[in-house]
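Re: beginner question about structure tokens

> Can someone show what the tokenized structure looks like for a real chain? I only ever see the sequence side.

Sure, here's an example I had lying around. Input first:
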Amino acid sequence: MLNPLTWEGFGEWAFIASAFAFLMLAAWRWERRRRDGGASGRADVMVYGVTAAWALVIAGMGPLTFVAQLFETLRSLGWLSLALVLFTRDGRHASVGPVRPVFASLVFVELLQPLLLLMNLRSGHVPAAQAMIFQISVLFRLLVATGALVLVHNLYAGAMAQQRTALRWTCAALAMIWGYDLNLYTIAYLAKSVPAELVALRGVAQLGAAALLVVGAVRGRSALRFSPSRAVAFQSLSLLVIGVYMIVMVGAAQSLAWMGGNASQLVQLGFVFVTSVLVVAIMPSGRVRGWLKVMVAKHFFQHRYDYRAEWLRFTRTIGRAGAHAPPLHERVVQAVADITDSSSGLLLVPAEGGELVLAARWQWPTAEVPAEAVPAGAVPFFEKRGFIVDLDELRAGVDLQGEKAVVPGWLVDEQAAWALVPLLHFDRLVGLVILGRPPVARKFDWEDFDLLRVVGMQLASYLAEHAGQSALLEASRFDEFNRRMAFVMHDIKNLASQLSLLSRNAEKHAENPEFRADMLITLRNSADKLNALLARLSRYGGSGSEKVEEVDVGEILRAVAERYNAPGLARVHLTHVSPCPVLANREGLEQVVLHLVQNALDASPDGMAVFLQLHADGLYCTIEVIDTGCGMSAEFIRNRLFKPFVSTKQGGFGIGAFEARELVKAMRGKLEVESREGLGSRFTVRLPLAAAKPLMDSIGGSTGSADKKVA
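And the corresponding structure tokens:
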């Protein structure tokens, strides 16, 4: 019965396991040979079977018996024949000739072993003869092992480069078999006996050789390369850390136990408590996990990123759909941030004036982004170079391609900002992602830059497609709106013509002077109102007939405030009014201010005031409408606020903000918005001062027909 507590028992189990492994190898090789229908593989099956039989004999009868030694000779001859077959398989016919004498010599030496066994049987009663025969047998085994190792070296070193991959694992198995035999018989020759420990471990060496042959067979079967995934490597590293921790714990506990006494128990309890607290506090930390991932990527892999996993995650993030999915602009930021493990990010997109404005935030509510986040003059830098800006290097004074001149100061001052990633679509900047700093700080390398550029181009195509679809939808809605308005304008025009005709007839035929005068006033007022309505409805048709004159903006703001302020209840406050005469259409400007004030009141809670400010800013007059209401998200400002027919009010048409912006643009002005959810909004109207008209004309050329009608 096998005794696992002795070296002999351990060796028996090791040889049984190796015998099973070689039998499985022989069966698999035979099945593959039969399925492929070729003659190759016969030598492999033979040597695997002989090796399995030798291992079983040693496990059952012992390593030094007559039968075991005879099977060892058969095993050695089998491996030598396999080495010769590998030489011929490699196609090195010219090389086989010189090594054949070596093979013949080794076979001859190995065939002397049966003679020595027979002599040992006949001289078993003479101890001196047995000792001499043992030494000669071990010496012959040493010669065979040494010669076989030389052959294995020549087999691998002389192979062509494309053949080495197929031979590598088989040569490693042969080197393990003959190398262990060389060490075993060297010690046996010097010690004049075979150590039981080394005999037992010989079975483990045979098992290792079988494992190498399995790896070689799998690699020869397919082009798969052993390369664990990053998740497996990270988990393996985690298991290694846990294992080291457990070993340290056991060692520390054992060391403390050797101390003995009550103090030992107290120290053990304290040690367990402190280490448990440290594990609970440190292991769940995102910073620790991030550090481990960086270490794995840096030291275990040739490339930092697992591109398959990154692409799958990128696709899932961008393709997320459903009612609860974030908007596209926010998903764009998340897709870029996930690649670099950034904890937050912003997306800036071009506005109509060419400057970059905030479009979306992702997990970064505290970032203070101005209305004009990046000036229009910086856009060509990113379009021409596609340069990814490392803000840490910029703060350190590194200026590689002139990025210091284009990056705004607020980004440099924002220490949480880490990098700028441009999104280019056919050399046109459609967005700029600002990445927040990751939990584990690191420097960018070439692989980061390459991957971020590719992802940036892909995201730019998504944004461009989204913008094109939105433009098509807006155009179709405008087309429908224009068709409906055409009928309304036609009917109103007919009515205005009829009223004008009635007015002229009454002027000719009415007999009562008083009646005639009253009728004329009524009819003329009606006709004027209808014609004014027609002019307003056709404003966007390109007529450009709005009257532009010098307007006192302060007077308009006071009139608007008085309109909303009831006695005892002032909801609109003029906090600062400077003299600012501008060139504008009075009715249009009043309509813009009324719309902005009304929206501010609607967004503010009951009892909260709206503030109006007026001051001169260089060549422009600035009107600010400020509220402390619910505020708006960057996504709403970018994609919905100025989109016609999109309204958050019940029964609204959704053209108020769009019309206000168009009116301001028609007066050569600009409408800007700054808003924070939960804090309020600031609408800023910038109009050129009347005194600056000559300078504006010299800069921008003729202002068109509207300027010709200045009063």
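Each token stands for a local structural state, so reading them left to right follows the chain. The longest strand covers residues 417-425.
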